[in-house]
Amino acid sequence: MSSESRSKDSGLSRRHFLTGATAATAAVGAAAAAIPFVASFKPSARAQALGAPVEVDISSLEPGSLIKVEWRGRAIYVLNRSMTMIERLMGADYDLRDPDSADSEQPGFAVNLYRSLRPELLVVEGVCTHLGCAPVERFEVAPADLGPDWTGGFFCPCHGSMFDLSGRVFAGVPAPKNLPVPPYSFVNENTLLIGAEAGSA
Questions:
Q1: Most buried residue, 83, 178, 196, 201, by most Cβ within 10 Å?
Q2: Are residues 95 and 125 in the same domain?
Q3: pLDDT digits (tens, 9 = 90+) for 56-104
Q4: Residues 192, 58: contact at Cβ < 8 Å?
């Protein structure tokens, strides 16, 4: 073999080696650059915690009392309806926009008069379905500012929307829908799990 052919073969080998080394370096660099990019798709620990179900101790929630908790950055109202409240709810004859909760954001178990798993316990998002204000609890009967037909519920101070003790919206007010019911279940008699229905936690 001539020195010229040896030189050509040696040049080709060097070229193949350099091409292979360059390709391997590029592949390693691309993989190193892709790792943080792909990792960015994974939710942060804070985001995972915000979306996680929230346990709420209701053992000290007296009848007629309401507590407010946060789930996924939303205010959640948990109301322990007294027997009197339940009776008022059953006897109410006011005009509701969606009395059967046919057009409401809620789990299937909430399609009933109480919009809840247990008649005494109401769990709703504390956000008016009009423009997102926070409705306030107005559990007194027939206050002067709400009229003689008011039997208790939630009132939005921003634009006057009214909701009954099941979070159902009155007809003729700005809010278009009932207060949303989040998914929830019971861990035990005194612990509510907001964010997960039974069997999905």
A1: 178
A2: yes
A3: 999 999 999 999 999 999 999 999 999 999 999 987 778 999 998 888 8
A4: yes
